[in-house]
């Protein structure tokens, strides 16, 4: 619906002049010259079609029309000020994080309570998705991405490496008398054998990846799903150890070899350059970088 409204700047000037009963004090409040205040009010009077002030020596006085408009202007500006204040507080107090599912479930979510204890005024909303979010189109403040850190227009901080190693249930290992050497893994079902991590790790372990060929082309979709399948004894998974510390500690999964291999890509904290100084992003950045460093030194 079209609204035939005067410029907001003119309304602000008029409201200040009416409240102070002075063009000079209105100019001081708004950081303008008195001549600029007079110009804006004159333009508003021309739009209304009637004088809003009676100009007297050293003072101004509202006309009857001015009195009616002053009350409405003050009320309208108060409503706008309250609305913008509420939105500003809401934006400042809510942090939306987008990240990949496994990191969210197995690493970030268990730690977020610590961030909220340290920052009780910031409410956290966690979104999980394997895709890259578009900061210009989506209501997301920060994201955790996997890659090499080269995203134009974004600030990127290295967070966690993508290290990996085979894991399986102790029952599955016992089914072939134990895992004594890396080649023993190929005697068992391999979950997602097309995952390039498998070929990299086997090669590093001195085992030909040819043994992966001809297997069912299963794909679990995420490390979290692979870990659940491995715990159920369905096969050997290739996983990132610090995502599954509780499963390893409880014995639901075992890591038969100390050999860890690292992919060129890693996890990065990213956000638009223009938001780098927002207090909520600054607080989260400091916290998560410290958490990431601590989790790798454990």
UniProtKB/TrEMBL annotation:
Q: Which UniProt keywords are present, listed alphabetically?
A: DNA-binding, Transcription, Transcription regulation
* Pfam family of the protein (one): LysR_substrate
Annotated signal sequence is none
HTH lysR-type domain span: 6-63
Query: According to its UniProt record, which protein family does this protein belong to?
Result: Belongs to the LysR transcriptional regulatory family.
Q: Which NCBIfam families match?
A: PRK11139.1
Name under which the protein is recorded: Transcriptional regulator GcvA
